[in-house]
Amino acid sequence: MATTTFPASSAENELTQRVAANLAALRARISAAGRDPSSVRVVAVTKTFGPEAVLAAWAAGLGAVGENYLVELETKRAALGELAVAWHYLGALQSNKIARVAAVADVICSLSRVKEIDRLRELASTSKLYVQVDFTRAPERNGADPSDVGALVARARADGLAVCGLMTVAPADPAGAARAFEETARLADALALEERSMGMSDDLELACRWGSTEVRVGRALFGPRPPRAAHPSPNMGEPVAPRGEMHERQDT
Fold first, then answer.
1. How far is the C-alpha of 203 from the C-alpha of 205, rounded, in Å?
2. Which of 49, 74, 184, 207 is the right S-S partner for 212, CB 3.0 to 4.6 Å?
């Protein structure tokens, strides 16, 4: 396969250097939490950043990129289609957009309902799937109740889908986060699921101590996020947030 090259401006070179330095600091944090950094995948969450952030993450050696908003995922993947990264969709799934998500996401991290499984089966989706687990029981939060996770995984497996892990967005308080990470790891073990996508910029050490295989990091790699309005939908202005996305703690 030919090597992909993208011309870089001085600003993009500076961003690449900054991301590489921040990634080294992240790996030091993972190591300080008692984990081998090579055992924990870092997903670079580039929501509201432009394609240059994806390029900077790739240049720093990261092979996975996460997006919360479908329009951004579609736009960036189209612009950087030859780039050798796995694209993770982190946002809540809307039934009328699942086909679009499945067309561009290598990994869908937010499966939480039977009707989403049914639609992905109809599409013969080959995306890898994580079931999202919610421990808050807040109606505005995306994710399945822990008691429903086993049945969802069994249904997805029976339908021939590639369910391979669990994902959770932990509560902000450390005690609540620890309980969420412990229970997610326990569920993953019980269901023989390898991937545990747990931990973000502010709680990745705790997640790593509970066995996370994947942390989703934005601010700690790229710095403060630009305003969302900087990346409007080309068709209708500011996109409408999917179910649960408006209120869910999504700042990684």
1. 6
2. 207
Measured between its terminal Cα atoms, the distance across the chain in Å is 33
The alpha carbon dihedral of 243, 66, 171, 119 has a sign of positive
153 membership: H or E segment, kind and range: helix 146-158
Give residue-wise pLDDT tens across range 67-117.
Answer: 999 999 999 999 998 899 999 999 999 999 999 999 999 999 999 999 999
* Residue pair 200/215 in contact by the 8 Å Cβ criterion: yes
Q: At what angle do helices 174-190 and 146-158 cross, to 10 degrees?
A: 30
Identify which of 87, 161, 77 has the alpha carbon closest to the alpha carbon of residue 118.
Answer: 161
- Give the largest CA-CA distance in the chain: 51
pTM of the model: 0.87
> If you average pLDDT over residues 167-193, what whole number do you get?
96
Q: Enumerate residues 6+ apart whose C-beta is below 8 A from 245.
A: 68, 69, 91, 92, 142
Tens digits of residue pLDDT in 107-163: 999 999 999 999 999 999 999 999 999 998 877 789 999 999 999 999 999 999 999
In the chain, domain spans: 10-224
